Amino acid sequence: MNRWLRLLRHRWLDEGDARRALGPDALARLEARVKASESRHGGEIRVAVEAGLPLSYLWRGLSARDRAVALFGKLRVWDTEADNGVLIYLLLAEHAIEIVADRGLNRHVGAAQWQAIVAGMREAFRAGRFEEGLAAAIDAVDALLAAHFPRAPGTADVNELPDAPLLG
């Protein structure tokens, strides 16, 4: 894609566009879904939705994947006790979806499983059903974390990361 066209597309959208895609009620429901999910396993899930990439990413020609990996570190998703944090990232300007999982979970989950989750999200997003797509992704990641990092009976949920989706 032309560099200037890409720049324009990303600068055209702002946080308000992300808030219109996911209103306050949807954000509250997604936060509650993450919280409920984390009560069933020892993993951590973060959701980040950005309207466009930061200008520095655009000038350097970086991708949505590059941004997701950077946010994975910046939001400290990599810093969980069992190395089982997962970031679900949506970039509205490019309709890009990325899932970044820490090494603890990636030992058990193959690329095909991650791609299947992304494919389900993509279908919902194409129809403008952002909350539905993110909810399905949270549920799919929940199932993987519950299978590989189940919460032991009687152990408390140690919430290592915020549950609220990040909008930008």
What would you say about this model in short?
This protein has 168 residues and is of the alpha/beta class. It contains eight helices and four strands. A hairpin with a 4-residue loop joins strand 2 and strand 3.
Describe the structure in your own words.
It is a single chain. The model has no long low-confidence stretch (mean pLDDT 93). This protein has helices spanning 3-12, 15-21, 24-38, 55-59, 64-74, 103-106, 111-126, 130-148, and strands at residues 44-50, 85-91, 96-101, 166-167. Helix 3 (24-38) runs parallel beside helix 8 and helix 7 runs antiparallel to helix 8 (130-148). Helix content is 52%, strand content 13%. With 168 residues, it is α/β, with parallel strands linked by helices. Strands 3-2-1-4 form a four-stranded mixed beta sheet, with helices on both faces. Strand 2 (85-91) and strand 3 form a beta hairpin. The protein is built from eight helices and four strands; from the N terminus they run H-H-H-E-H-H-E-E-H-H-H-E.
